[in-house]
Amino acid sequence: MILRNKLTKETLNIPYSNFKSRFSKEIQFALDSSIRNQNNKQTFKFNKNFESDFYFDLQWNFNHFGMSNWYIERLN
Questions:
Q1: How does DSSP classify residue 43?
Q2: What Rg, from alpha-carbon coordinates, does the chain have?
Q3: Which of 49, 53, 58, 64 is deepest in the core (most CB within 10 A)?
């Protein structure tokens, strides 16, 4: 997984397991934002596993719902 810092243009090439541990707060914030967004769009409320949808497209969701200086440039 390749991450890039928006401010310094620094690049990290780390495995997924290290990404989850190092960016756990940012991932949780992005997940919560994504769930709030999906709940606002739903006209009919039903039990849906938003977390699996979030991780299905992790790159887009992390980059757009996360409030981090880092973004996922590419998944390996």
A1: S
A2: 13
A3: 58
